[in-house]
């Protein structure tokens, strides 16, 4: 395991890149949550930074999903007083800098919820896959998807994404409005770098003011709503159906480097415990 699951590069004072590097599967585990908390503290204290790009060292997984095995080890409330994940999502959405997700590989569950909290989302057309598989595991999304998706894609498509619990390719995600744009894989990082470099060259006060006003106009996701979804996630996780379903999925290869994880959406429909 790496010393830190986030590799940070300051391309300039104004422009940082952050790479998720948490083998073997880029799970969202307690160490990633703590590293994100520390990263946000550093970014909030730096008055020069204007744009941050998030990518992945693993070409198959941007963030695979939440680490269900270590859920009880997740950190306590963040500096806002909100639960750990809600704290990260809210701070990222409200930050004065611009956050961009460059998605290559799979980002499901809380991985999708992380990129939904970013300001801009670009994905590899050939290799980007997004999904909210929680309902297929007898759970519900608990980190912001139930709040963000209806605003972005509309009610019916949000229901399709959440209730079908399937994988969606980048082209479909673009058409639905889940991401800004699907980009040829060979061009993904160049396209994102061009946008980030352009933004980094503009006035920070103008950037942060525009983002703040757009957030106000767009009826941003509230911490209270995310906390309600998180409570329902926890309730279902300890229910008999939730425990049985998660145990079945773990036995079939979930949270391992496996065909199951590569094809999560398809595999969810194969077995339903009695």
Automatic annotation (TrEMBL):
<protein>
    <submittedName>
        <fullName>Enoyl-CoA hydratase/isomerase family protein</fullName>
    </submittedName>
</protein>
<dbReference type="InterPro" id="IPR029045">
    <property type="entry name" value="ClpP/crotonase-like_dom_sf"/>
</dbReference>
<dbReference type="InterPro" id="IPR001753">
    <property type="entry name" value="Enoyl-CoA_hydra/iso"/>
</dbReference>
<dbReference type="Pfam" id="PF00378">
    <property type="entry name" value="ECH_1"/>
</dbReference>
């Amino acid at each position: 395991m790496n010393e830190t699951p986030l590799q940070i590069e300051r391309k300039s004072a104004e422009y940082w890149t952050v790479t998720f590097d948490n083998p073997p599967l880029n799970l969202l585990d307690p160490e990633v949550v703590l590293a994100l908390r520390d990263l946000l503290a550093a970014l909030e204290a730096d008055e020069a930074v204007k744009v941050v790009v998030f990518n992945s060292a693993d070409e198959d997984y941007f963030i695979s999903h939440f680490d269900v095995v270590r859920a009880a080890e997740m950190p306590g409330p963040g500096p806002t007083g909100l639960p750990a994940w809600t704290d990260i999502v809210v701070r990222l959405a409200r930050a004065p800098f611009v956050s961009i997700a460059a998605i290559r590989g799979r980002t499901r569950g809380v991985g999708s919820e992380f990129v939904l909290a970013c300001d801009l989302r670009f994905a590899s057309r050939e290799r980007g896959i997004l999904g909210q598989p929680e309902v297929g595991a007898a759970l519900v999304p608990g980190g912001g998807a139930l709040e963000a998706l209806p605003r972005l894609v509309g009610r019916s498509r949000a229901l399709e994404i959440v209730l079908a619990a399937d994988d969606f390719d980048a082209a479909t995600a673009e058409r639905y409005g889940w991401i800004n744009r699907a980009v040829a894989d060979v061009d993904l990082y160049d396209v994102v770098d061009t946008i980030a470099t352009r933004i980094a060259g503009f006035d920070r006060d103008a950037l942060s003011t525009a983002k703040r006003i757009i957030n106000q106009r767009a009826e941003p996701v509230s911490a209270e709503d995310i906390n309600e979804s998180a409570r329902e996630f926890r309730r279902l996780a300890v229910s008999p159906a939730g425990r049985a379903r998660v145990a079945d999925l773990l036995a079939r290869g979930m949270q391992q480097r496996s065909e199951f994880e590569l094809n999560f959406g398809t595999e969810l429909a194969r077995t339903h415990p009695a």
